[in-house]
Write a structure and sequence with these properties.
There is one protein chain. It contains two helices and 19 strands. A hairpin with a 4-residue loop joins β18 and β19. The protein starts with a helix and ends in a 5-residue tail after the last strand.
Length: about 180
């Protein structure tokens, strides 16, 4: 009986937290960039310089998110870390997210009926571009100078200088850079 009561109150507390977080992001979308950036500076684990976070973005459990310098996060992006398990979404310098990119560093183990939580860090190295509507799943590292094509689902590590596409994302060619 006590276990059921605890479970009920935990669920209610989570629903209140979710409601409040959505309310905060609704209000943030009405604020100018400098106020939004102050909020993000307070709640992210790290927020670098010259970071552009567009409106209509969402971050769950911001204390697990690190963002480097010169990062662009476009409209509609959503980043989710874990509430119970220590995970980090670590975005290095000069990374660009196209609209509606989703990062999930938490999930569930489908092998069990009660679907216990699983989690793994997501690390996105320098000079990566992630195309629109792409999804990056837990435990993935995307190597420096890589490109993730639009509408891709990244389920495993991507080596540096790779261009990937598809569901699941696979390497389609090496990236050549000209300066």
């Amino acid at each position: 009986m006590i276990k059921l009561i605890k479970k009920y109150f935990f669920k209610q507390a989570f629903l209140i937290y979710s409601y409040m977080l959505n309310l905060i992001f609704f209000v943030l979308d009405l604020m100018p960039h400098f106020i939004r950036n102050l909020f993000f500076k307070l709640f992210f684990k790290k927020l670098g310089k010259n970071v552009m976070i567009d409106y209509k973005t969402f971050f769950r459990y911001m204390s697990g998110i690190k963002i480097g310098n010169n990062v662009n996060i476009n409209r509609g992006c959503e980043f989710f870390t874990s509430a119970h398990l220590e995970t980090v979404i670590d975005i290095k310098d000069n990374v660009t997210f196209s609209p509606n990119v989703k990062l999930y560093s938490a999930g569930h183990d489908y092998k069990y009926l009660n679907l216990p939580d699983t989690a793994g860090d997501i690390i996105i190295k320098e000079y990566v571009w992630i195309g629109g509507n792409s999804v990056v799943l837990q435990g993935v590292t995307i190597g420096e100078y890589s490109i993730v094509s639009a509408n891709s689902v990244v389920t495993k590590d991507i080596p540096p200088y790779s261009i990937v596409a598809g569901i699941p994302a696979t390497i389609i060619k090496k990236r050549e850079i000209y300066e």
